[in-house]
Specification:
Elements: E1 12-21, H1 25-41, E2 45-50, E3 57-65, H2 77-89, E4 90-100
């Protein structure tokens, strides 16, 4: 079964990452809050969810317009600098996964 993709000029991209934070959880949350503010100013979104069952484990969700997430733009120095700071203090486990928006068309129902 195939699903139609959203139009490239308006498609959204969601990147997910699992994060393990060491003892300085408050610093991580401050940095990621600053990052979320930078994202918002540029039309991106950043959400963080805490794992109920594992202390210091979070999921980060970054949303932007595709086909390439805008926060990967090398010209966005403040975002890139905060990413380096975050990566120096936490462990991103597994691969970061990029998800493309799927346009849902109810007229396809049989």
């Amino acid at each position: 079964m195939s699903f139609p993709r959203a139009q490239p000029e308006v498609s959204r991209v969601l990147t997910t990452a699992r994060v393990e934070v060491g003892p300085d959880e408050e610093k991580y949350l401050r940095l990621v809050a600053d990052q979320a503010e930078e994202f918002g100013a540029r039309g991106f979104h950043l959400w963080v969810f805490r794992c109920r069952d594992e202390a210091g484990v979070f999921l980060e969700f970054r949303e932007g317009r595709g086909p390439t997430p805008g926060w990967m733009d090398e010209r966005l120095d403040t975002i890139r600098q905060r990413d380096r700071e975050l990566r120096a203090m936490v462990r991103y486990t597994g691969e970061s996964t990029i998800w493309d928006e799927v346009a849902l068309d109810r007229s396809r129902e049989g």
